[in-house]
Amino acid sequence: MHPAIAASAALRTNSEHTLLDRHVGAELAEYLLTGSLPDFDPQRLQTSTTLLYNDLLRQGLGGVTFETNVKFSGAGHGPVEVPILAITSTGERFAIALSGPLTNDHPAAPSLRELLEQTGDLQPIVVNELLVRGNLPAATREVRHRLGV
User: Fold this and answer.
1) DSSP β-bridge partners for residue 120
2) How far apart are CA 103 and CA 128, in angstroms?
3) Which of 14, 28, 52, 79 could disulfide-link 71, Cβ–Cβ 3.0 to 4.6 Å?
4) What's the CA gap between 121 and 64, in Å, rounded?
């Protein structure tokens, strides 16, 4: 490899280092090697979900209540845990869930993905886990915007 190309790649890798972490890097490497995405670390998802939930509560949003780890049953489904359930004063219900860093717009939990695809009772709000960890205020703004508050 030409030295200028190697130096350019090293600089780019160094400047992009903050965009990935070792967990995401391992997930990406496994995907590239096997062609399938591994399940994202459930403990990490729970920790990030708790961060987002607590920040939403801290906002003191009038007209919206939040509950965590709510069991919800849909047609043809046993109870599925909704990480954060938001209920507006008009009765609208939103399932707030995190996606893995490489799977934007898809809840990390397969059972929740299936429930949301088959029920019209819950409106999904899916937030990328890396956004929650890297920029919690932006993640909270995204949820507030989707809730209309």
Assistant:
1) none
2) 8
3) 79
4) 17
φ/ψ of 89, rounded to 5, equals -65, -20
Specify whether 29 is located in the same domain as 74. no
* Run of H or E including 32: helix 22-34
pLDDT tens per residue across span 89-125: 999 999 999 998 777 888 888 778 777 777 778 899 9
| Residue 125 shares a structural domain with residue 59 | yes
Quick one: which of 125, 132, 119, 129 has its CA closest to 146?
Answer: 125
User: Of 50, 40, 43, 39, nearest to 96 (Cα)?
Assistant: 50
Instruction: Indicate if 53 and 92 belong to the same structural domain.
Output: yes
- Is the domain of 25 the same as that of 58? no
Query: What pLDDT, in 10s, does the model give residues 33-59?
Result: 777 766 778 898 999 999 999 999 999
Alpha-carbon span 149 to 60, nearest angstrom = 11
**Is there a single domain that holds both residue 69 and residue 115?**
yes
Three-class DSSP category at 1: coil
